[in-house]
Amino acid sequence: MMLRSATRRVWLVVVVAVAATAGPAPAAGQSEVCQEGRLSRIKIQNNSLFAPDDIGARRFSWALSVVNAVHMRTRVDYLRGQMLLEEGGCYEAEALAASVRNIRELSFIARAEADSHQGADSTWVVQLETWDEWSTQAGVYFDVESEFQFQGFYVTETNALGRGLRVSFRNRKFRERNDRNVTLASTRFLGSRARSSIAAGATRTGNFFKQEYIYPFISETGRLQVQTNLRYEDREKSYFTGNDEGISNVLFPFTDRSVSLRAQRRFGVPGDLTLVGGEVEVLRRTVSGPAQQVMREDFETPTTAPDSLAALLQPQARPDSYVRLGATIGLRRIRFTAARGLDLLSGMQDVALGTELTLTVGRTFGTWGTSVADTYGWLDGFASGQLGPLLANVNLRAGGRYLDSSEPGVSRWRDMGLSGRGLLYVRPPASTGQVFVTGVRFNARGNIAQPYQMVLGGEEGVRGYRDDELPTGSTMVGFVEERVALPWFRPAVDIGLTVFADYGRGWAHDIPFGQDTGWRAAVGGGIRLGFPAGTGSVTRIEVAWPIGGAAGGRGPVLRTYWSPVETKR
């Protein structure tokens, strides 16, 4: 009953938020003063994957033309709706730059560029040119990590009718996951700037449903952000034991029912913003069955775990439910620039410079008897700076809960966390295709009362180890990487090479089956691919060898994965 009541309140707030973001209409006859001048025209060139000039008389121009012909390009009216400028309104250079950033953020846009000039009549003309990503996808889920692993199939259209609509069906079966779901999403919900999605399907242990609505801050001048989330999921937490020959995994089944609302308001001017907001979150988490054991990763025939094994999951075997109310305050001192060849190959990526600090503090008012009430808090920080060929940025998050009471001799602190990463990019001034990257990623946890475990291996860890190896509780991984982009196959495909080395460690703490791994190292190299050239996404194919005495004669690990852009904010 409490969850249904909270859901109705969330939808009421969504309706009010949509109405509030419409804004009042200008008064009749009111004349707006434009400090930078008036905008008379917006010209939009919505290319398919390849612009006509890119095709030209190239050797495989016919293939590029066929790709263009079968792809449904993004509609001009959709792109016009993403602009923060209107014909007949005021021209603002910062609003134009923010418009390009917004468009570049769309998953189905590979590139976006804009230029402006002032005509003889002193009005401004804006020229926007975009190139699409390939938005229709049908294929198989697979991973390559020492061996080819078939994981299912999917059919997805991320830009249906050229209007930013997403339709997808996914069937994924890998380890403990056995998911089948359908997703419908819109990047312009009911013609507004809000994003909304709904997904439903089945999991290995039951059902899944998720609905999300987000009205984001529209550039740095945006004043309001509203986010709601409604979710139901029957799921399992899979604990790796580190034993490939015996009991490889322990499954802990539970059901999540949650609803949340977050709203934030900004004050000030771009580059000097203050944020205040609030949040309401309801989570009802219930254990749905006994823990199960999996022999040699055979997830088809798990058996009930003996009491001695299930006891190792304490205290995570009694996860908390809660009703939370919190308040947020923050400072944002951010400006933006753009760069090529950092995380992407030849594409332009946005780079946030400056600082941001946000503090959230709240109270838990109800727990359904799973725990005593508590006070919780999270501190999020970001800093980034540029000096000549150097670009550095740091992300940090720290927080936890403090119980109102606990048993004698038992700490009242719960779910303590300190996580983040620091990156340094070095790009030689005369180079357009070479960049050196080094950094550190860390995730420290303590007194965890929710289902949780991490590993030292995997794409974000020491890459010479699989993502199911070395289960642990806290990690620190440093890396160095040299990236080189090759121009040989443009404009069809971006190709680049990379060599890297990783060095990291894991600490068990109180995490089930956690290991104190000692320091581990790996070296490797690979290929980075992007289609079409200039795309905002990169696929990596890598091979990495564990080295040092702790490697124990392990062979190399081959994997493929998507690479994120790390400079956005």
Description:
The protein has 569 residues and is mostly beta strands. It has a domain at 33-132: membrane protein fhac (Ubiquitin-like (UB roll)), CATH 3.10.20.310. Helix content is 10%, strand content 53%. The chain is built from six helices and 27 strands. It has helices at 2-20, 52-55, 61-70, 76-82, 93-104, 307-310, and strands spanning 39-46, 109-118, 124-132, 136-144, 148-160, 165-174, 177-186, 195-202, 207-215, 224-240, 247-269, 272-287, 292-295, 303-304, 322-340, 348-366, 374-387, 390-403, 413-426, 434-446, 454-455, 471-472, 474-486, 494-507, 518-530, 538-547, 557-563. It has a 22-stranded antiparallel beta sheet that branches. It has a three-stranded mixed beta sheet with strand order 1-3-2, with helices on one face. A two-stranded antiparallel sheet has the order 21-22. The two termini are 38 Å apart.
